Amino acid sequence: MTDTWPYLEIHQSRTHEPGPYEYKLAATLEEVYTHEGHELADVVRGLNARKVHAPDGQPWTETSFVAEMHRLGA
Fold it and tell me: pTM value?
């Protein structure tokens, strides 16, 4: 880390080490962004097509995805 301002703390919003769920979600999101697009509908469709479901085991909705990103601090 640098002493000059502004600086970036690499994990400034992290409250814990990512677990298997977070790693799988992150890897799948990278794949979706690369092949499907960045729009919310594209992301939700891409996650569901890859069978990476929401934490409750249900398919993603736009609402559940936004809520989960908020919960994760993303």
Answer: 0.78
